[in-house]
Amino acid sequence: MTTDVTDAAALADSIRSVGLKVTEPRVAVLDVIEREPHIDAERIFQSIRTSLPGTSVQAVHGVLAAFSQAGLLRRIEPAHSPALYERRVDDNHHHIVCSACGAVEDVDCAVGHSPCLVPSSASGFQVQSAEVNFWGLCPNCQTG
């Protein structure tokens, strides 16, 4: 983990702002996601395990669940992939996923405001957001 004191303070403030207690594992997890959006729990664990040897994969999952529930993170679940986490939470963006290597990029909402897609039938639901995953080949996989 390579967080400097200023960054750590900002991360701690983000955690406090959603009403959660600041802990070393929480700051470490948030730091990894700040540096690498669209990351899964196992890769987060691998990034922090040497600096926090007492942390487990289960603890990382607990931090991610708390952050997601508090609105600090967004959890996305592309097909055939573990859940991925990102900090971009306050909009209705979508994702494009490489079907070869699994790279993920953000895609701004196609039309207008949330939910920016209207279902043919909402079955009485009040639609608040829409999640879309576009699939294709990233530039690296197109040339590889």
Automatic annotation (TrEMBL):
Protein location: Cytoplasm
InterPro entries: FUR, Fur_C, WH-like_DNA-bd_sf, WH_DNA-bd_sf
Keywords: Cytoplasm, DNA-binding, Iron, Metal-binding, Repressor, Transcription, Transcription regulation, Zinc
Keyword Ribonucleoprotein recorded: no
Gene Ontology MF: a single term: DNA-binding transcription factor activity
Family annotation (CDD domains): Fur_like
Record text on cofactor binding: Binds 1 zinc ion per subunit.
Binding site for Zn(2+): 98, 101, 138, 141
Obligatory cofactor(s): Zn(2+)
An annotated GO cellular component: cytoplasm
Top-level taxon in the UniProt lineage: Bacteria
UniProt xrefs under PANTHER family: TRANSCRIPTIONAL REGULATOR FURA, ZINC UPTAKE REGULATION PROTEIN
UniProt protein name: Fur family transcriptional regulator, ferric uptake regulator
UniProt organism field: Agreia pratensis
